[in-house]
Amino acid sequence: MNKTGVLLLSHCGYSFMEELISNAAKHSLESFVLSSLPLPANSYRIQELQEKSAWLAVSENHALTWEDVEQVMQELAAQGYHIVCCLSVWEGYRTLMAKANQILGVADMEPAQVELLLNKYQLRQQLNQAGLSQVNSVLLDEHTWIDLQAKGKPAFIKPVTGIASYATFRLTTDKSWQDIEKIQSEIATDLIYSSIFSANRGFMAEDYIPGQEFSFEIIAVDGQPFVVAIHEKIEVDESGSAVLENACVAPPINLNESQLPKARAWIETIFQHLQLQWGCYHLEARCYNDHWEVIEINPRVGGALISPSVSILTQGVSMTQLWLNNLLYQTAEEQLQQKAQLAKFDLGTETYQQSPMSSYFRVYFAHAGRIRTIQQNICCLEPELVQVSLKSGTEVVETAREVFLGQVLWAIPQDKKNELLPKLITESRNTIQVDYE
Ligand SMILES: Nc1ncnc2c1ncn2[C@@H]1O[C@H](COP(=O)(O)OP(=O)(O)O)[C@@H](O)[C@H]1O
Ligand SMILES: [Mg+2]
């Protein structure tokens, strides 16, 4: 058996394991999986991962620690396995991944850089001081909360470190500091998500950023960032305690020929300032009157269907594949090849080659209640990919984060985009239809 492989860190048995294992296999590499303990209802994932990977270890707790990773690295070495790199799409393990890669001698982000990006308050302060953001931010306590509410300036509340839009909302007069305390106790008991917030349970407020929202999928090679795709969030729902990002299209439809190079140059400036030399990023930003503001910079691949959506644009190379390439291609020659490939996808630059396909995906969220039926309806275009993650009979409880119900991806030929996209945006609302009891 081939004893050379990639160390994959899985959160509670998930984190795109099947996709990552298959990506590794394309490079004739095995997958060594270290997973945190799945929730009792998902314990079958242990056997599934055992069957799909060359080597599996499961930690005692629902969140991995550095000690777990270190121990597994030692065990693998002792058993004669060779780890070429470490990869995790779970944001809570990004620092562990960076530390492991440092030990393995693989060029990746510095662990301290990961920590900076994950701390949205520190990141905002730094961008602000460098003149790269005009957004003011403050750490929240009862006093600063009351102060802000009294001022009445449009403000946005979010955890200093967070994911899944957990507790992200506009500061309005009907909300109170007690709401934050309630959310904090909800987070503390959330077995899957609590570890993300454990290093930093605080909340922050920042100026409300108006405008259209986009995400930039970026791969950095030896100090050079490449924008592999720009997704425009064409439907954002801010009505609840979590901002829901319903539908995305790529390439974007509301950035014109003159705005794209400016956006691209702005990304370059941000990356240079933060010295982000290597890795994969999902940078979220809003644009208003031609002014760009960072929402957050995730040091990882985007969630939802971002990775397969990139595959449509690049005609077959997904974002997770590009990320693995980034970790594997480390010689000067491989880096040159990688740069040449990425340059073709790089929107807003002269090397960009227009893709014959556009991608569009919609995410379906569940709300509280017991699901009676889930049905898939046909619309004007056959989907590329349909994923439904809940089933009838599931009881969905009230929560301050997004609850994925399903997601569907479409590939639209460029010459049919004008005709099909508007139809798809409307019709896709009912592609996955749920009835509650
Ligand atoms: N300052 C802000 N002004 C307006 N909307 C914001 C602001 N910060 C975040 N948002 C909205 O909330 C969403 C979730 O916030 P984000 O910081 O991306 O948290 P998460 O890490 O949970 O994705 C963003 O995609 C954006 O739509
Ligand atoms: Mg976000």
TrEMBL record:
Report any Pfam family annotated for this entry. ATP-grasp_4
Q: Which domain of life is it from?
A: Bacteria
Where does the record place the ATP-grasp domain? 124-328
GO MF annotation list: ATP binding; ligase activity; metal ion binding
Keywords attached to this entry = ATP-binding, Ligase, Nucleotide-binding
* Record-linked SUPFAM superfamilies: Glutathione synthetase ATP-binding domain-like
Q: Does the keyword ATP-binding apply?
A: yes
InterPro entries xref list: ATP-dep_AA_Ligase, ATP-grasp
Name the UniProt record assigns to this protein:
ATP-grasp domain-containing protein
Recorded source organism is Amazonocrinis nigriterrae CENA67
* Lineage of the organism: Bacteria, Bacillati, Cyanobacteriota, Cyanophyceae, Nostocales
